[in-house]
Write a structure and sequence with these properties.
The chain is an all-alpha fold. The protein has helices at residues 2-20, 46-53, 73-76, 99-106, 117-127, 136-141, 143-148, 151-159, 162-172, 186-193, 195-208, 216-242, 248-258, 260-268, 282-292, 297-307, 312-319, 332-349, 369-372, 378-387, 390-404.
């Protein structure tokens, strides 16, 4: 009988233990990205920091798949909705029923100052990891130097940065400029190419020197942007001189700096976004940059220039170039910069093979929609005649061909 009691007690004890050890419900594992983690060793520094600046919450958003549709802003931004400037209404002559024109009229240009403070700080943190350019940059963009520097002064300045000097000299001797005979020194190069062109080359090399590629895809984006900047700055100089603009050197500086944001985003955005941002249509690129990154590359470039302590007045002018996509009332100089930036991109990509193939009056590309409204202005009629000049078209075509073939060796 005692044995029976012992068995019953044992069975009760086992039952109690089983109840106590009942497994708890397990939480679903956190979703993982198909690509390398944003916080992994391979993507630290500026690329890792970019994740905090993205509109989506959490670092995993940086590895978004190419075919993942963007989430609504209200869902991916837990903070109060960001203030946006009023969109610029297109003129009534634009056919709002056309898909591209409808997209243009719907686009609101987001300014960096309208972002919440936390997001602006996140962008600033990204650029803390980007090396600052040498002090030579500050000297080359100063208004005093632009207006008063001599060829000898420019040669001396370039010589103070041996790596930049070597790159500039190599480019001057490449087929990009087609000199009749090679130059052996910076003084010769400055004499042959001119002060403004040499200063532009120096600026471009100092900008791209701040960025490094970690993959062939990223290197291609950086090289394509460098090529577009080179073509755009050269075209700006030639058109500004032909149109007798008062300060061609300043306009070239603005155009070169307008590509800084694109260099920065190409070098620092998470790898999962590299194939998401389109490289063709400027309108589509701007839409995707604002959706995926929170700002256009133009605004991101402005933040970086502020971090580099460039003159505020210069930054403000540079930031007003790319909004020419939606602004119908840009100044003549800024509209000229916008035109040259877009044509430089098309020549660099091969979308435009020859400059004389471009006819603004017949162009149906939405990226040039605002400029078409200015064709009645005498200055723009003069610009159109300049673009048709065989000498200008030939030189720009040769330069574009050399850059696309990699002959300039800028990478």
């Amino acid at each position: 009988m005692l044995l029976v009691y012992v068995c019953l007690a044992t069975l009760c004890l086992v039952g109690v233990l089983l109840l106590l050890r009942k497994p708890k419900s397990r939480a679903s594992p956190a979703p993982t990205s198909s690509g390398p983690s944003v916080g992994s060793n391979s993507s630290r520094g500026a690329r890792a920091g970019f994740a905090d600046a993205l509109p989506s919450s959490g670092g995993a958003a940086a590895e978004v798949a190419v075919d993942t549709p963007p989430e609504p802003v209200a869902e991916r931004t837990p903070e109060p909705a960001r203030a946006r400037p009023e969109p610029v209404a297109p003129a009534s002559s634009v056919d709002a029923n056309a898909p591209h024109d409808a997209a243009l009229s719907a686009l609101t240009w987001i300014r960096a100052e309208t972002l919440p403070e936390a997001r602006r700080q996140a962008f600033a943190a990204v650029f803390k990891n980007v090396p600052r350019p040498p002090r030579l940059l500050q000297q080359l963009i100063s208004s005093e130097f632009v207006n008063n520097a001599s060829l000898e002064q420019l040669t001396d300045l370039i010589s103070s940065e041996p790596l930049v000097a070597a790159k500039v000299l190599a480019t001057a001797n490449s087929s990009m400029y087609g000199l009749s005979r090679p130059v052996t020194g910076l003084g010769q190069a400055v004499s042959y190419l001119g002060l403004i062109t040499m200063r532009s080359l120096c600026l471009q090399y100092m900008l791209i020197k701040s960025f490094q590629a970690d993959s062939p895809e990223r290197q291609t984006l950086l090289t394509d942007t460098w090529n577009a900047s080179s073509l755009a700055s050269e075209l700006t100089l030639k058109l500004a001189q032909a149109m007798v603009r008062p300060d061609p050197g300043r306009l070239v500086t603005l155009v070169v700096l307008s590509f800084l944001g694109r260099l920065a985003t190409s070098a620092t955005m998470p790898r999962g976004l590299l194939g998401v941002i389109p490289v063709g249509s400027f309108l589509q690129r701007t839409e995707q940059e604002q959706t995926k990154l929170g700002l256009s590359s133009s605004e991101i470039g402005g933040l970086l220039m502020r971090d580099w302590d460039l003159p505020v007045s210069l930054i403000d002018e540079v930031r007003e170039i790319d909004p020419g996509l939606v602004l119908p009332d840009q100044s003549l100089d800024l509209a000229l910069c916008y035109l040259c930036a877009r044509l430089g991109e098309q020549l660099a990509s091969g979308a435009l093979q020859r400059l004389d193939e471009f006819d603004l009056a017949r162009c149906d590309d939405v990226d040039f929609r605002q400029l078409r409204r200015r064709l009645g202005e005498p200055a723009w009629q003069a610009m159109a005649r300049c673009l048709d000049e065989p000498a200008l078209s030939g030189s720009m075509t040769d330069m574009a061909t050399a850059l696309r073939s990699g002959a300039a060796g800028q990478a």
